[in-house]
Amino acid sequence: MARQRGLEDQVLTLSDSEKEFLNAWFPHLESESYIIPPAHMDTVHEELFYDRVGTEIRLLKEIDESRGVRDTVRIDRVLKIVHHCMNQIKEKATKQNEVMVCLTQAKCGLYGADSQSIYTGAAARNMNSDKAEPLDLKEDFVDILVIHRHYGVLMAAIIPQTEDDPLAVQEKFRKAAEYLKQARDVVRRSVLDDLAEQPVIHHAIVLPDTTRRCLEEALRNLSDLQELQESLSVEPGRNVSQVCLCVDEMADQTRLDAWWRASLERNEGGDPAMNAATYTQLVARFSIPLTTVELFLSREPRLQLWTQGHLVHAVGMEHGRPMSCIALFPQQFQVLEEPPDDDDDDGVRILHGPTGTSKSVVLILKGNFLLRKGCRTVFVLQTSNDGAAAAFLVSHQVRETAGQGAGSVQLVNMAGVRDWRSVWTEEGKKKVQAGVEELCQHAQTHGRVHILADEAECDVIAEIYRALKQRHVRFTMWAAGVKLDVPADMERYVRYLTQPLRSPPAVVREVEQAYDMKRGTVPAYTRPPVSAPCDGPPVLTVGHYGDDYSDRQGHEGDLTWRCARCGELVADMLRDLRVGCQDNAPHGQGGLTYSDVFVLGLMKCDTDTTDDHRLSPAPFIRGLESRGVPTRKVAHNDTAAVKQLAEMTSGPTERAAGRGRDEAVTVANENTVWGLERHVVVYLDCVYGDIDADATGRLRSMSRSTAQVIWVKKVRK
Predict the structure, then answer these.
(1) ∠ CA 441-443-449 to the nearest 5 degrees?
(2) Confidence class of residue 373 from pLDDT cuts 50, 70 and 90?
(3) Of 105, 116, 53, 55, nearest to 82 (Cα)?
(4) Measuring CA to CA, which residue among 392, 312, 363, 382 is closest to residue 648?
(5) Given this structure, which CATH class describes domain 505-714?
(6) CATH 3.40.50 boundaries in the chain
(7) pLDDT tens digit string along 529-543?
(8) Segment 666-695 mean pLDDT
């Protein structure tokens, strides 16, 4: 950052690299507010287990506070509350056209490599860093820093875990006030010293465990209240408690607003020292010295989580893990470890539950177990037209995770047994009979046959089960599905997996509104034993204005996928998430790639579909590509392309292997990728006449997301 001093004015410029950082982190700095990090993510505790053949499996468990992680739990709780409050303030400020950048985790010891605080870190980066003495404070305060476009700078100290005792509050309050005074002095001398007119620095104290009554009693008995008032820059005549936010005010929007106004908006006309150039300078000076955020006990404990794109990537990595570091709830692990019920049980399990409850993962682990135990071949069955991707995924993952020297995996296609009326055809019956014959021959040669079937058709599985039983074949059969009408003679084999693991809560709430879940065709989700590390990025929406609008705002067609403007708006959102921009990954942290994105709906993606066909997504694709987003259209009957997608679902490492050759956003019918997942899913809804495909789209499309859903939604009058 170049600084040139003059007697009357100054010239402050940003280097090209600084501009690049700001454009990546804050693409709409002049018009939008930002909270850093964009969400709080709780620490997740995992315990390592091994199955009977030594496969490593992680179990997600509640953190036991008696095991030395009490401080982690405490800080997680406090930061989550504070982040929620600041987000409420940000939303209201946005409605009032106010702009600010808020850092909610400027915690001592986390800012920069060696510095103790955000303020020392910012000072060390600037020219006069020799003046930037470290803040020598032992208390573990957590800081909030707000840079407001009109009102200047707010520094707030959070005092967590103070018992509701006035004497304890007094002691903590004194230390926090002294800390803020030191921080203010550091910033004025070493960060703002070259400005002709320094912005106002406001102070506040947040007490997420202290009531207003207790605080007032503590302040009433302070002998050095006037000195503390000066430390907090509170004007004479004002009550110092006005700049304090207590626990009983955090859930009250009116009282939260009152604290915000008292802390920051002391000058109704704003701070005269704040202008566009100064605002940009302050954001750069405080943000570019990288802040790190503590995440996940099971992972690298300090990850950078700055932008919304980083959040989507981090959430997607947690919910959409590769098999090499997969984590399960105890519910799924117990199904794997459960012994046969009795002597007549041939090792049959039918996993039933809503989408994203790790049914596929359990099948893969079971296949891995069978191969590592010594079985020669595992047969993976495709029993439905929409089950190709899932069958490819399971067969690929079992083969890859079992390692070299294990047995083989053989895929058997038994799909397409019914006609359009859902009646079994003669050809379908012959296909199943041929498959059963192949399984019986293997059992005759090797003594037993082992079968896996994901996204299974229950009547096909039942037919195979009965045929094998009738021929006295010894077999292991594990099947999984979302909508299963299990016959009575197989009900004892059903195990319900209902705890959501693939998607964050924000996505799960949308999927729960699906028609099939509301009417009970698909089992309901149950609450997992461990809270998700983050609620997840909120669902983003793009409004499509159909034929019934006179002012269509550039939109065309009545269907979302027939609109190039919708494609352009989605491309802009992907750009804001920095999809495909690897330069936004400081210190090697991965970013979102185009291969992390699905565009799904009821459109038809056959390669021979013409542009004027109502089911063709060609206009939407044109909109994406006009903004520089590469696309790949995958037809439902393109077996090779579906197989490639399934093998890329293995995780970010596998997807990275294909970069350059096939780095593109996948556009497909929602049924084509049933069983696969991606970090970002763009859902193109279908509302046309009396047709409302949203009833199925939530279940078939949104549930594919491990992090972010972008909903292109027809606007209704």
Answers:
(1) 120
(2) confident
(3) 105
(4) 392
(5) alpha beta
(6) 340-496, 505-714
(7) 888 888 888 899 999
(8) 83
For domain 340-496, the CATH class is alpha beta
In percent, the amount of the chain with pLDDT more than 70 equals 80
Contact 175, 108 (CB under 8 A): no
Q: Extract long-range pairs of 256-263: CB within 8 Å, 24+ residues apart.
A: 256/85, 256/88, 256/89, 257/89, 257/92, 259/204, 260/89, 263/154, 263/156, 263/202, 263/203, 263/204
In tens, the pLDDT along 118-176 reads 555 555 555 444 444 544 544 456 678 899 999 999 999 888 765 668 888 888 888 88
**Residue 653 neighbours by CB distance under 10 Å:** 10
Binning pLDDT at 50, 70 and 90, where does residue 251 land?
Answer: confident
Alpha helix locations (H) across 266-307? 276-287
Distance separating alpha carbons of residues 717 and 715, to the nearest angstrom: 7
Question: Residue 47 in contact with residue 60, Cβ under 8 Å?
Answer: no
Q: In the chain, helix, strand, coil percent, each to 5? A: 40, 20, 40
Q: Locate 440 and state its tokens.
A: 């019986």
Amino acid at 586: P
Cα separation, 104 vs 84, whole angstroms: 10
Whether the Cβ atoms of residue 302 and residue 294 lie closer than 8 Å to each other: yes
User: What's the chain's length in residues?
Assistant: 717
Assigned token pair, 710: 């972008």
